[in-house]
Amino acid sequence: MHYILEHLEPRLYKWCQLEYEHISKIVGNEQLIFTNIKSKSQKIKLEKLGKVEKNSVVNLGLETKKICILDPFAPKTLTSEDRKRFDYFIFGGILGDYPMRARTKEELSSKLPGAETRNIGKEQMPTDNAFYVVKEIIEHGKKLEELKFKDSPELEVKEGESIIMPFRYVLVNGKILMSKKLEYLLKTKKGF
Fold it and tell me: What crossing angle do the helices spanning 14-27 and 127-140 adopt, rounded to 10°?
């Protein structure tokens, strides 16, 4: 089983790097592959988190019938049975747009004809949350409806000040799944 994150941002932003660290902890660096990593500095930052490929996943020559692309616009929902079909689960490392623009189709699905797509709900999730949900379904046999979520949670920054996080978060032990380092960055960054 391989989890592939196609990096689609122009840079490796600090929040992005923290989210990628969290993803590595969730799925393990032996199963994680970062693709489309163009710069040497990005490669150095990511190689301790997983395997790093300069090329896009589109150019790796993977057998497309063994590929599942996670896409909120996909007509079929991911199930534990899909672990028998696919060897690669591909996620787009894309900064979320509101409203969603179907960038996964534009950036990945349209370029990998023959690959199948699955959704894990129609709502947009942070990438680390999407990895967690897929791992729960594929490796632990959970059903999507067995997982609990919170939409647009409010993160208190300091007394009287908070940020609305405009995505769907999975709840783990009653709390939203978020890297402690990312939470700290959000609470201490200057300006909104």
Answer: 10
